[in-house]
Each structure stands twice: as structure tokens, then as C-alpha cells.
Amino acid sequence: MALSDMLMYWAIGIAVIQAAYCQENFIKVKCDPENQGVYSQDAVLNCKVVSIKKDIQIMKMMWCKVEADICVGKTMLTFEDGKWSAEDARFSSGALEWNEKELNVSLLVQKTQVSDQGSYRFMISTDTGYDKGNTYLRVTAPYSVPVISSLPGINIEDSMPVTLTCNASGGYPPGQIHWFDQLDSNWTKSSALRTIPTQDGRFNLSSVFTTTASSSMALYKCVVVNDKMDKQRAEYQLAIGPGKQEGTKNTTAITAVFIVVGALASGILILYIHRRRSRGNTWIQAQQEEKEEHEKTMEEGEATG
Ligand SMILES: *[C@@H]1O[C@H](CO)[C@@H](O)[C@H](O)[C@H]1NC(C)=O
Ligand SMILES: *[C@@H]1O[C@H](CO)[C@@H](O)[C@H](O)[C@H]1NC(C)=O
Ligand SMILES: *[C@@H]1O[C@H](CO)[C@@H](O)[C@H](O)[C@H]1NC(C)=O
Ligand SMILES: *[C@@H]1O[C@H](CO)[C@@H](O)[C@H](O)[C@H]1NC(C)=O
Hints:
immunoglobulin domain, binds 2-acetamido-2-deoxy-beta-D-glucopyranose, rod-shaped, transmembrane, cell membrane, Ig-like_dom_sf, 5-stranded antiparallel sheet, alpha+beta, 6-stranded mixed sheet
């Protein structure tokens, strides 16, 4: 065969494949980059399937947890033959929300655990294409109101060394405990923090601070800082002088900052298709590889499920 013929066949082959793929991949999965979950409460992970064709026929959908870009452990949820099946009763699918050009899908997590934190993948195969998207579940647990105790607890005299302990429990991620006196001088550097893991992946914090008793400086505060979103505090008045009872005075303040994940940019799909179309050979190869990889992941997901 002449070289020119070979080139011609090759060019035709490319054109056919390109036509097939252009027709096939009409969908794109876009997931919220990050979703927030609170320990022991329910969490929702959101993805969106954008299609430029109406009435797409869903063949298969799948949610799994991913590590190093592959599905690990059990595939939590699989949608096939028109129904969902779950491996773990804590995971279920939110209602599918359709309109002309998009399908909202969600993974519902009940009684969120610290171990649920991580990356999740949503995969979909339809008659007009396939795609997948990743989203991250960040888990937080608020610390308990801290409790301060002192040693000795009563009959403290001026100039006596006093050890204060501030305990807070059941938080995530690991937090800090800062110490201040009544003039808000920062004594944190003179304290020692112990971070004690609990069985469910949360942490207990215990901070010990030794000071010298002074009747003119008898009020101390500890502040539990949990990644800037959550602050809890307690105050303690040293019981200086004979006959004085242990005087604890706890106050709390919680500042929660809710990060609102903004809506997704609408131009992304158009840009995506435009770029794919204008890319030629490398694009086709990439598509082929991506398709094979997708099918492989789907199979692996099933195998590990
Ligand atoms: C999908 O979810 C977004 C918010 O995440 C919402 O604005 C949009 O209306 C939803 N679409 C459908 C079809 O329900
Ligand atoms: C604070 O926590 C430490 C470490 O768990 C514990 O040994 C100590 O008894 C606790 N103190 C109080 C007052 O609960
Ligand atoms: C107090 O000191 C600690 C440790 O040096 C520091 O991390 C913290 O930001 C300080 N807090 C304030 C309010 O200055
Ligand atoms: C953490 O603190 C809680 C409440 O004080 C306590 O019940 C639990 O035993 C502590 N866990 C560990 C591992 O110290």
C-alpha cells in the first residue's frame, strides 16, 4: 500500500472516531469542590451532571470513596436497572433533580464520622456519554465547653504556685488551648497541651498552666481554638485567701463561620466542548484513554463493592 493511501485511511479513521466521540460525550460532571460535615450529623455531597442534550438515558451511576485517585473499600452506592443499592445503610442517594440541561445528584451521609472525611467520586454512564467528578467531605466536631480546675483548689495564698488545667473534649480537627489573664496578656507559651485521641477519631485537649497566685491578678481564661471556625472559652477565679471556695465561672462563645460554596460558572461546559473539538488527534487519544480508564474504574468499583 502506498504511503499516501495509508495516510488517507488513517485520516478517515480519525474522522470516524472523532465523529463517534463528538456524538457520544455530551455530558460533564461538576462537583462542589468541598462539602462540610459535622460529627454525628447528616452531611450532603453534591454533584451536577450537565448535558447539552435533552432526555439522557442513565445506564449506571456510582459513588465511592477515593484514595490516590482510585476507589477504595466498598463502593457505597450503585444505580443500575433503575434503582440504587447501598453497601452501608448510612449512605444513600438524595432525590435526583432534573431540569432541561442538568441533573443534580447527591450522596447523603448519615451520622457523619471523622473517618468519613476524604475524597469521594461520582461516576455516570449514559447513552450520550460518561464522566466522573470528585468532591471532598471535610468533617468537624465542636469541642465541649472547656472546664478549668486548679491545684490547690482552695485556701490559696499570695505568691503560691498554682497549677491550672483546662480540659475540652470530643473535637475535630485537633485544636489549641490558649491562656490569658484578666488583662488579656497571653500566657499560652507557659502552658503545655496534651492532645488525646478518642476511639472515634476525635480529640480531647488538656492544657496545664502553672502560675504564681496574686490577689490582684486572680482571673484566668482559657480559649479552645478549633481551626478558626469554632471558639469556646472558660474563665476561672483563683480562690485566694482563707475560707474561700473554689470559684469557677464558665462562659462560652461559639463563632461559626459557614463557608458558602458559590454556584458553578456556567461557561465551563461550552469551553470544555469547544476545547475538546479543537484538539484533534491527541484529543481522540486522550478520550480513548479516558474512556478505558472510566470503564476500568467502574469495573474496579464493582469488584471491590
Ligand atoms: C441544582 O442545584 C443548584 C444548586 O446547587 C440549583 O441552583 C439548581 O436549581 C438545581 N437544579 C435542579 C434541576 O434542581
Ligand atoms: C483533664 O484531662 C486530663 C487528661 O485526660 C485528666 O487526667 C484530668 O483528670 C482532667 N481534669 C479534669 C478536672 O477533668
Ligand atoms: C497567644 O499565644 C499563642 C502561642 O504563642 C498564639 O498562637 C496565639 O495566637 C496568641 N493569641 C492571641 C490572641 O494573641
Ligand atoms: C475524653 O473526654 C471525655 C469527656 O471528658 C471522656 O469521657 C473520655 O473518656 C475521654 N477520652 C479519652 C481517650 O481520654
